[in-house]
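Treating backbone geometry as a discrete language has practical consequences that deserve illustration. The sequence in question and its structure tokens are set out directly beneath this paragraph.
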Amino acid sequence: MNAGIGKVEVKTLEHDHVFLGANHLRNERRIWLVIALTTVMMVAEIAAGTVYGSMALVADGWHMSTHASALLISALAYLFARRQARNPRFTFGTGKLGDLAGFASAIVLALIALLMAWESLLRLSNPVPIGFAQAIAVAVIGLAVNLASASLLAGGGHAAHAHHAHANGHHAHHHGHGSHGDHAHHGETGDNNIRAAYLHVMADALTSVLAIAALTLGSLYGWLWLDPIMGIVGGLVIANWSWSLLKSSGGVLLDLVPEGETLPSEIRQAIETEEDRITDLHVWQVGPGHHAAIVAVVTSQPRDPAFYKGRLSALEELSHVTVEVTRAA
């Protein structure tokens, strides 16, 4: 349809903005399962520690509660994004809610790293007696739970095809009037929400591995100082993970084009010719596997926006496109 001529039926302009990741439901279910597993383990450790007078069990139980709380952020983000996906107040959908949750989880990870390092420094300056056999048993059980949780969450944050077909294709504008194409586009990108949950589980697993190593060597050689040293090392590694997650999720929230992202150049290559030139281009992520773009084209031979959208049909990352066409002076 020529957007600048004749009447445009309202029904042709209706489309939704559901930009959820391909594995949204799967990731949501798995996080709830990991929360249940972590919570059961947490309650069991606190109860056993209280009954048998083991501070090591009680302390590890409460430590697991911090990770369960962080995982709850991810689970609730998936739930809210799914339920509000078609809420018109979210003009570009709820796909970026996972990145907001990932950013919040990264801050929690940073705090955990800081607390680990601080507690380790205190232990280094004021050593306390360690019940090695009991502490090792707790660490081994915790590691087993974390490895099981990690296996459930592994792979969810890597590139995955998005599943939602934009109802009526690309949304385009020609001199301020609407027009729709016929193609739905899907792309590949990381899910920072499931990645955040995975990093929380791996942080706990790393803590358990370092603790087992330090406690084993400490029991054999009496190296009490090794336990807090391992705590500091673990804190630094977790802080590095936190920084990486902060950068990736924060970049999406600020509509930052990541280094190495080729989509803007691919759009230019697809559109620009001797007659057609892009004068303004905005590309941003609106959800895992989904990008939106605003393309302003100046040309000596103006065509309908659908013509330019057709040139972009091979770019599966694009889920929502606005094309503005202006005749060259």
In short: The longest strand covers residues 276-287. The CA atoms of residues 255 and 284 lie 5 Å apart.
